[in-house]
Amino acid sequence: MTGLDPTGPYDDAVSEAPGRTDHGPREACGVFAAYSTNQRISHLIYFGLFALQHRGQESAGIATSNGETVTVYKDLGLVAQVFDEPSLAGLDGHLGIGHTRYSTTGSTNWANAQPTHRQIGDTSVSLAHNGNLINTAALAEKLGVTGATTDSDLMAESLARAVDDGRSDGRGLELALMSVAPTWEGAFSLVIMDQGRIVGLRDPHGFRPLCLGELPDGGWALSSETAALDLVGARFAREVGAGEMVVIDAGGVRSYFPFNQASPRLCLFEMVYFARPDSLLYGKRVHTARHEMGRRLAREHPAEADVVVPVPESGIPAAQGYAAESGLVYTDGLVKNRYVGRTFIEPTQGLRDQGIRTKLNPIAENLDGKLVVLVDDSIV
Fold first, then answer.
1. How high is the mean pLDDT of the chain?
2. I need a labelling partner for 164 at 20 to 30 A (CA). Which of 256, 267, 339, 363 fits?
3. Does residue 297 contact residue 324 with C-beta atoms inside 8 Å?
4. CB 244 within 8 A of CB 257
5. Residues 296 and 261 grouped into a single domain
6. Is the pLDDT of residue 23 over 60?
7. Catalytic, out of 29, 72, 234, 345
8. Residue 11 lies in a domain
9. What is the DSSP string of 57-68?
């Protein structure tokens, strides 16, 4: 694996810097991966991450491979802050994965940025994770890992050891995943890569989204949301199923199911808030679903009021639905500062409170003297 500075954005260390991890991060992030048949992939992944910026604002990272060498570049900040033309030029290769990070607890530092990388002899494994595990203590004990660590570190470490154990009998990354993935418990959608393939993996309940798309050159992409496929010109093929493992390499796409069958349980918050309104989940446009939620809310809780006002921006479709069903006037009453990020995904409550004050300002003339139905996506 190449790298410029083990303490900087390029990561050429098998184990990341000690003392820089935090206790118990719970991640709900954005992941993107692509395998091209004839082009450098770093710019395409960069634009894919741009479309997933709403899923994580703390850090961003990309890992790529040219078939022999894996290069990882990651740092704190938004996608546009982390990457520029020189950094993207340094990410050589026709396959790769990317990540935007959000954690509900824990500190923001470079060591927690992803993709997470492990080197096993001549084999490199990189992993980007959306979700959280519930059996981290048991995994850490089994691996003999002490001190604070992240879910992605534990996954990468257990996977690296499985690949290493299987090298003598020819077992590759996908067979190692078939062996180790059932030991991971919780909510996760992952994109994983070695030098020659990318893998998408979804937990047996499908708590977090993951979809598959076909690139114009005949290659393939994996993404947390379909909107990112749209942005890079990929054709949405299908959602990765709950408990499914999709492997993409020069031979095309293969599918495995390493987990025992379980009932699908997509996280409700994806449809309510987290996903982009132009994405598809379970075959339904998120905007359409939120609009219908507003209509149903109006039927269940009618109100005597003058106007319906949304909390921008994720509350807009539901407010439009409420107004359409109730016959009330829909109007803008709050102006959003577009340069303030999603306040829910700030890492501390103090930052979330300050973000709200900075983010929204009322349009007094639209609200003064009126009874207002204020519609937000949720009460979180």
1. 88
2. 256
3. no
4. yes
5. no
6. no
7. 29
8. no
9. -SEEEEEEESSS
